[in-house]
Design a protein that fits this description.
Elements: E1 5-15, H1 18-23, E2 30-41, E3 46-50, H2 57-64, E4 72-77, E5 80-81, H3 87-96, E6 97-100, H4 114-124, H5 133-143, H6 160-173, E7 178-182, H7 190-207, E8 210-214, H8 218-224, E9 227-232, E10 235-241, H9 242-247, H10 252-259, E11 311-313, E12 316-318
Parallel strand pairs: 3-8, 3-9, 6-7, 7-8
Antiparallel strand pairs: 1-2, 1-4, 4-5, 9-10, 10-12, 11-12
The protein binds adenosine-5'-triphosphate and magnesium ion.
Length: 335
């Protein structure tokens, strides 16, 4: 199937600003937030993006919408390279791909009522005639499970769950084909999380929406996403159908992440933590596989040369030296 959104070797770096960088640009510290990510999402597909804090999930999501300028690589949406779009076409593209944020309250203007916030979207994007706005507004609010009576309220008078429903409504108003939800339920109570997740599932199915769901919560991703990509220090280290990745993790990092979900033993004790130390800083990436300093299975090859690329291990892809590239469809001798 043709991809809706496709990144090719997408790379984002942040350079340290300030006087130090001005006087010594060559020595400026560089954060390698996203390192050569090639990932695609098909129309209507749900893709989870998971990894520890600071691994580059939000930056990748933002770069996919060109909210941050990549250092290298490309993003194609519906076959068009976003770098080739002039500002007017980029604005039109942004209608087709919308972002939902973690803090629903902060994402809304506290001075505007919910009705005003949503009506503004219809007006700015000229989605309908001004006279049709009240009717469209009521239908939109109902589609996300909000009573149209709430249109007169300001965000401060709504619960966190209601604010997130407004955030979703605002994203849906423009009729997008892709939603990128960045930790969209992390700030909510668990019972409210479930309601919002059910709403997202229902909306994606009804409207054939593609969803990139960024989260550090593996349970949520398993529930919501058909496919998952595991990110470590700016790279995708494993990617494939969610059930395949969760039931048989190939990459030692995926295995450690899954094992670190707190599951109490029958005697009430917690299992020992799997990932003891913090990941290395993205300003000083280790040579070879970036996970090798923490990997229980690392061997000599893992510490040298470039980081391993994603390699096909049906039905997943994994970037790990334990899975050497296939030669003519089979593993090379010696492995
Ligand atoms: N605007 C920025 N300027 C400088 N560095 C940044 C900027 N945004 C992100 N970074 C750095 O890039 C790296 C990746 O950050 P990012 O926010 O993408 O991670 P994340 O996986 O979303 O983390 P979290 O789970 O905590 O949200 C981090 O080292 C972060 O400090
Ligand atoms: Mg983030």
């Amino acid at each position: 199937m043709t991809a809706l959104l496709e990144t090719d070797a997408l790379t984002v770096e942040f350079r340290e600003g300030g006087l130090g960088a001005l006087f010594n640009p060559a020595g400026a510290r560089v954060t390698h937030a996203v390192n050569g990510v090639s990932l695609s999402v098909a129309p209507g597909e749900t893709l989870g993006l998971v990894g520890e804090s600071g691994c580059g999930k939000s930056t990748l999501g933002r770069a996919m919408l060109r909210l941050v300028e990549p250092r290298a690589g490309s993003v194609r949406f519906g076959g068009t390279d976003l770098a080739a779009l002039d500002p007017a076409r980029l604005t039109r593209f942004r209608r087709r791909a919308q972002m939902i944020f973690q803090d629903p309250f902060a994402a809304l203007n506290p001075r505007l009522t919910i009705g005003e916030t949503l009506a503004e979207v219809f007006r700015v994007h000229r989605l309908c005639a001004p006279g049709e706005i009240p009717q469209r507004l009521a239908a939109l609010m109902q589609s996300v499970g909000l009573s149209p009576d709430l249109a007169a309220r300001r965000p401060a008078a709504l619960s966190g769950g209601q604010c997130q429903r407004v955030g979703i409504a605002r994203a849906l108003a423009v009729g997008p084909e892709l939603l990128i939800a960045d930790e969209a339920v992390s700030a909510l109570d668990v019972s409210i999380q479930a309601q919002i997740l059910n709403l997202l599932t229902q909306l994606c199915a009804e409207r054939h929406l593609a969803l990139i769901f960024i989260s550090h919560d593996l349970g949520v991703i398993r529930h919501l996403c058909r496919r998952v990509a595991v990110m470590y220090l700016g790279r995708i280290v494993e990617e494939g159908p969610t059930e395949a990745v969760f039931t048989n993790p190939r990459h030692p990092y995926t295995a450690a992440l899954l094992a670190s979900i707190p599951r109490m033993a029958p005697d009430g004790s917690l299992p020992p933590p799997q990932l003891l130390d913090e990941p290395p800083s993205p300003t000083r990436l280790p040579q070879g596989c970036a996970f090798h300093p923490r990997c229980p299975k690392a061997f000599a090859l893992c510490r040298q040369g470039p980081a391993p690329a994603l390699r096909r291990q049906e039905p997943v892809q994994v970037a790990c030296e334990l899975y050497p590239p296939l030669v003519n469809g089979s593993a090379p001798a010696g492995h």
